[in-house]
Design brief:
449 residues, alpha/beta, TIM Barrel, 2 domains, 8-stranded parallel barrel, two-stranded antiparallel ribbon, 39% helix, binds phosphoenolpyruvate, binds cobalt (II) ion
Length: 449
């Protein structure tokens, strides 16, 4: 266990992107209640995830981390969770079939409610109000009452995360993830499209393999992995009062674990070496992601990695690279080379979303699918040239048929954005774009093999 660390030691450091709660006694009462709430995950599962991630360091696994930019209280429905789960499973099958390695399924789900914002103030028609910071903190409606941070929202987020996690567990272990039902994962609105038929062809090949294996005596009764899967949850460790309330000592190992998610990540805006978020994450045993954007100072990043992972444990650190389609070829190779030279064990994961956000002519915040593909292609190309394994992908997507990102085989245009633009924060890939991207990544994984 780390010296001088405790779940509240972050309070001695500068904590960026935290709300100011006016009513401190209400905040303290909420924290006291949260400390008694049951964990969402068990430390043994976190250790299992770390073991799976360790394989993504040296080419024996691939990480698929995907889900909402921001979950919301309004967009909470079992069908949404089911559809997102189905698309993640489809993507995992596509990637696994191509690469021949197991895919680690990690949802940006069941707790992804707090957001760092580029400005603390939003200005609309001359009226200024505090920005929306995610449903865990305040409301999206543009009025003074809704924008006031309310601690009670942390409890509501926990409750929603708990029921989301409950359903995900039921899907993952209750037969929904059974490979013999792979045909049924295709969503109705994707079925008729090119991606839908590509997926159908793949599903047919998988069914043939399963039939053959069954003839050899291997089937979902004899092998657990054919009928169920591990499905993990993650979110950004941003709102520190929430995160510390869900940080507990595991009775088996005596170590500290955050029990609100299997994996947590530190955002690009809060990864300062001497900041509160790095301090907090340095004491918990969960795998930790670190976002790496264009402004990253390489020597500081190296110190952050060493602070969080002093033992250089495999599967502990995931570097989530988000440089942007235009900058990745210039900015990324020096980082990759240096960390390789230092022999720091990390999973290299590509986030082609966060540095490719732009404002469309219509005024919507969007991402151009072509740029997303381009960053992914560059990422794999750079890894190939340097002979370092590209171990994962980090995406904002949903199983809903939304129109938030421009392009893809559905040819979503700027004009289409307004028809089904539902995100509470950043634009997400819809089911069809997600599957299209999975096939593209699969083609790169095949080349590497
Ligand atoms: C996010 O992942 O939603 C996010 C805010 O990313 P970043 O910290 O990379 O900007
Ligand atoms: Co986002």
């Amino acid at each position: 266990m780390k010296h001088n660390w405790n779940p509240l030691s972050w309070k001695n450091k500068k904590a960026l992107h935290q709300p100011i709660y006016e009513d401190l006694s209400k905040l303290n009462k909420v924290i006291a209640r949260m400390k008694k709430l049951p964990p969402l995950v068990f430390a043994g599962e976190v250790r299992e995830l770390k073991c799976e991630l360790s394989k993504c360091v040296d080419g024996k696994g691939f990480l698929l981390q995907a889900g909402d930019c921001a979950e919301s209280f309004a967009e909470f429905h079992p069908n949404y969770i089911r559809n997102t789960f189905r698309v993640i499973m489809q993507m995992a099958v596509i990637l696994s079939f191509a690469s021949g390695v197991p895919v680690v399924k990690l949802g940006r789900l069941a707790g992804q409610f707090a957001k760092p914002r580029s400005s603390p103030i939003e200005n609309k028609d001359g009226i200024e109000l505090p920005s929306y910071l995610g449903d865990m903190i305040n409301g999206i409606e543009f009025n003074e009452f809704s924008r006031k941070p309310d601690p009670e929202r942390m409890i509501q987020s926990y409750n929603q995360a708990a029921s989301t996690q409950n359903l995900l567990r039921a899907f993952a272990y209750g037969g929904y993830a059974d490979l013999s039902t792979v045909q049924n994962w295709n969503l109705d609105f994707v079925k008729k499209s090119k991606q839908g038929s590509n997926f159908k062809n793949l599903a047919n090949r998988i069914s043939e393999c399963l039939n053959f294996m069954n003839a050899c005596g291997v089937n979902n009764h004899s092998v657990r992995q054919l009928s169920e899967t591990n499905f993990y949850i993650s979110h950004e460790a941003l709102l520190l009062p929430y995160e510390s309330a869900f940080t507990r000592v595991d009775s088996t190992s005596g170590d500290w674990y955050n029990v609100g998610a299997h994996m947590l990540w530190i955002g690009d805006r809060t990864r300062q070496l001497n900041g509160a978020h790095v301090e907090f994450c340095s004491g918990i045993s969960n795998p930790i992601g670190i976002k790496v954007g264009p402004k990253t100072d390489l020597s500081e990043l190296i110190e952050v990695i060493k602070k969080i992972n002093p033992q250089n444990e495999k599967g502990k650190i995931i570097l989530i690279i988000r440089m942007g389609a235009k900058s990745i070829e210039k900015l990324y190779p020096p980082i990759l080379k240096k960390i390789k030279k230092l022999k720091l064990n990390v999973v290299w994961s590509c986030d082609p979303m966060h540095a490719n956000t732009e404002k469309a002519k219509s005024g919507f915040k969007t991402r151009i699918f072509r740029n997303i593909l381009s960053e992914v292609k560059s990422f794999f190309k750079i890894h190939n040239i340097l002979g370092i394994y590209a171990g994962g992908i980090h995406l904002e997507m949903t199983g809903q048929n939304v129109t938030e990102c421009i392009g893809g085989l559905q040819k979503i245009s700027d004009k289409d954005l307004s028809s089904r633009y539902h995100t509470h924060c950043d634009p997400r890939l819809n089911a069809s774009q997600s599957i299209e991207l999975a096939f593209l990544i699969a083609s790169h994984l095949k080349k590497i093999k």
